[in-house]
Every structure is written in structure tokens, then in C-alpha cells.
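Running this now, will post back.
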Amino acid sequence: MTRVISPEKWQSRGTVALARALLGKVLVRTTPTARVERVIVETEAYVGPQDLACHASKGCTPRTQVMFGPGGIWYVYLCYGIHEMLNLVTGPAGHPAAILIRGVEGAIGPGRVTKQLSIDRALNAKPAAPESGLHLEDHGIVAPPRHVISGPRVGVDYAGPIWAAKPWRFRIALENLKRPVARVSSPAHAAS
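Update: finished.
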């Protein structure tokens, strides 16, 4: 069973729970010449202006304005002048929170994710929907809780010891994901 996950779904639960729930979901990138699907295996949650590791902790700026919009849109920014970073905005409008997509099958590290899927800032503020060229699907893949590893987020020491230590980075090894079993129907045998 494959289904597109509607952008509105990302406003229904807390950002930390959603970051964990994204493990096993499929990131789908479509262009005029290709469709690429990758299973999400690593995420990080950034919960809003009180979270000193979150870009929104410094207020609404031209770069972070998209985070203050409705959940279900992409926040794509350039990091260190080198790597594009892909985030899914999760809060209701006015509450800036987002999930960084840190890893997908075949690309561990947020810069590698965007390179592998040809994601750039042209997708910033676009809905996480098929018409934007980047969306999420549920293929029935499950990330069993016992196999999900949580730990501190990467590269946020500037936020101070309390916020840097929050265990809001979630990851799972591909081999620990439970994929649905394909059902094969056998053709009816004709009586001879």
C-alpha cells in the first residue's frame, strides 16, 4: 500500500513525535526526467523559538520566515555556503518548528541527501506535495521502536548544554526497518 502523505498531517502532532514517525517514510523527488524514492533513516527535531538550536530562536528573518508558515511546507537553506539543507515545517502557522532530514537510504548526512535528490532552495516554501516535485509517501514500512536510536542533535553546541543535549536526533539502520510483505496472487488453475 502506497499513499501520499498530505501536508496537513504535519500539523497534527508534536515535532519530536513527527521526527521519529518520519523514519521509514519515503521521500519522493520528481523532475521532468526522473522519479527518485528514498526511505528516510535519520531526522532531527527543532521545536520552535524556545529551542536555542532552532533557527527560529533568533526571531523571524528573511531566511527563517518560511518556518513561521503552516506545517507541511519545505524549509531549504544553504549551510556554510556549501550544502543545501532540507527541513519539513511542522508547526501551525505562527509556531516555527521543523524537522531536518539528515539521512535517507544511500545518503547519510543532510548535504548528501539534497545532492542525491537534486534538492535546492527553489523548493523553499513549497508544499510537501506531488505538484511541488518533492513529497512524502507511506509505503507501509515500519521503524520498530526498539531499533530507533535517539541522541543529541549534530552541530548545535552553540545552543548551550541543555538544548545541545536534547535527544531529538532519530535514526534507524535500513536492515531494521520492517517492510510489508508483497502479496502474490496465484492464477486460477483451469480444470482439464
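DSSP finds three helices and ten strands in the chain. More later if anyone needs it.
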